[in-house]
Amino acid sequence: MKRQQLTIWVSAILAVLFLFVVLVFQVRQTEIAVVTTFGQITRPITEPGGYFRWPWPIQKIYKFDRRLQNFESRFDQVTTADGRSLTVSIFAGWRIQEPQLFQERFKGSFTRAQDNIEDLVRNAQASVLAKYSFSELVSTNPDDLKLKQIEAEVLESVQSDSQIQRFGVDIEMLGFKRIGLPESITANVFDRMKAERQREVSRLESEGESEAIRIRAEADRQRQQILADAQAQATVIVGQGEAEAAKYYQVFQKNPEFAIFLMEIETLEGSLKDRTTMILDQQTAPFHLLKQVIVDVPEQSGEEAVPVSEGQSVDNPVEP
Fold this sequence. Notes:
11 strands, Tetrahydropterin Synthase, Chain A, alpha+beta
């Protein structure tokens, strides 16, 4: 009896578990789902949790990844407003927002969805890029580039397209992956870019030369000013010196012989300040003063100093 009851309980538990598996399904945090009843969509599910369903073939569950999906478009050749050709590749990030529309449109196929989204993106990029010039997409000057603005316009154009509303998806991000040039015009573009850089180099060299001329002119002006100031100061000093000299000349005019004698002594002192050997004529001024030698006699001898003339000896001085 006890064994039968245990069997009944085990069977009941297994039946409950079976019914739970068959009649209940789970939607994870990263998923969204739709429930179809006899092939018709009857209920979208966008929140995670456990849900009741009727067993197949009455109802069927389709689950989709609700995380951001990324794709990169193929290279597509576009024409800018100034008639230049570019090859552009765009990346985009999209997410399923309405699972019932996504199921109806693409039957749950992400590949079909990305193909349709890529067509919309390519059409949008062609229409937007046609409004911008080549230099706003490719330039050596960062201030001329408008890539962010162009990306924002392409994204807005795709989001506002009526078709994307029927896809049940939302384009959340979009940007340029690569921008290239057709091989046929690459060489011409590079030559033109080199010419632009050379013009920029010439402009900078011209500005540098102008600045150098200005600096040299300013330096010359300052030099002339300094020389003029120095010349003025020198003139003032010379005038002051001449004024002082004039005072001494007035004194010298009273006794010219004494003035000449003082100047000869000063010249002689300056010439013989260092140890010097000279061979000169005895009449050469101021060295003619050396012709007469004064001999000092000690005071205790009681004799006076006697000048010695040429040809005389100190031992036999001439009486005064």
